[in-house]
């Protein structure tokens, strides 16, 4: 990062949506819309090859988001990538050094509505020194794919049913199964 990039009032933190590039594109568009009205802003796209299908991704979430942002017209020099986070908590932990380097007054969180409550919770815990501004995406009523994805996120966020562990039993987030956990 150069000195010009470290004088931004706000940082837009765009959280990756796993293998669902449609959602990464939607989040990039929302970040672009915010950026248009707040030009003294820097963008961080965050996300590696996370989620239970991460191993099937060709590019990281952050790379997909940066690509979409550049297609929308944002200069590459205004976008930084964090490409190692595998879940929401890591999005904030691994982006914190970049945010601290920029030292903004506000951190704008871009993710979908159903995911926002959990994201803001992590943001307030990991980034307490910054004002947190939620900026949720919201699919249009006629956007069937977006509505279905939002519904699935809403169900997951409210039930925490580990669907990926039930249907993909060999995919675990750690190397060993935790004790007293069901085998699925």
Descriptive labels:
globular; alpha/beta; 184 residues
Structure explained in plain terms:
The chain has 184 residues and is of the alpha/beta class. Helix content is 43%, strand content 16%. The protein has 6 helices and 5 strands; from the N terminus they run βαβαβαβαβαα. It has helices at residues 21-37, 61-72, 88-102, 113-126, 144-159, 163-167, and strands at residues 10-15, 41-46, 79-82, 106-112, 131-137. A 5-stranded parallel sheet has the order 3-2-1-4-5, sandwiched between helices. α1 crosses α2, α3 crosses α4 and α4 (113-126) packs across α5. The protein is globular and about 40 Å long. Residues 162-184 have low confidence and may be disordered.
Helix content: 40-55%
Mass-distribution shape: globular
How many β-strand stretches? 5
Q: Biggest sheet, strands in spatial order?
A: 3-2-1-4-5
Contiguous low-pLDDT stretches (5 residues minimum) are 162-184
Backbone structural class: alpha/beta
Biggest sheet architecture? 5 strands, parallel
How much of the polypeptide forms β-strand, as a percent range?
Answer: 15-25%
The value of Rg in angstroms is: 16 Å
Question: Helix and strand succession?
Answer: EHEHEHEHEHH
Count of alpha/pi helices: 6
Round the mean pLDDT to the nearest integer and report it: 79
Rounded to the nearest angstrom, the distance between the terminal CA atoms is 44 Å
């Amino acid at each position: 990062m150069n000195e010009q990039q470290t004088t931004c009032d706000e940082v837009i933190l765009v959280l990756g949506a796993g293998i669902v590039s449609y959602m990464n594109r939607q989040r990039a568009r929302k970040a672009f819309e915010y950026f248009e009205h707040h030009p003294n802003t820097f963008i961080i796209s965050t996300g590696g090859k996370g989620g239970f299908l991460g191993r099937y991704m060709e590019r990281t979430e952050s790379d997909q988001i940066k690509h979409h942002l550049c297609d929308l017209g944002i200069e590459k020099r205004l976008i930084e990538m964090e490409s190692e986070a595998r879940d929401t908590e890591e999005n904030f932990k691994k982006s914190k050094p970049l945010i601290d380097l920029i030292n903004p007054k506000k951190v704008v969180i871009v993710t979908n509505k159903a995911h926002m409550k959990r994201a803001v919770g992590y943001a307030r815990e990991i980034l307490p020194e910054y004002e947190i501004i939620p900026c949720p995406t919201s699919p249009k009523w006629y956007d069937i794919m977006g509505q279905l994805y939002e519904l699935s996120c809403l169900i997951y966020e409210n039930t925490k049913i580990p669907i990926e562990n039930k249907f993909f039993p060999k995919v675990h987030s750690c190397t060993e199964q935790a004790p007293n956990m069901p085998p699925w």
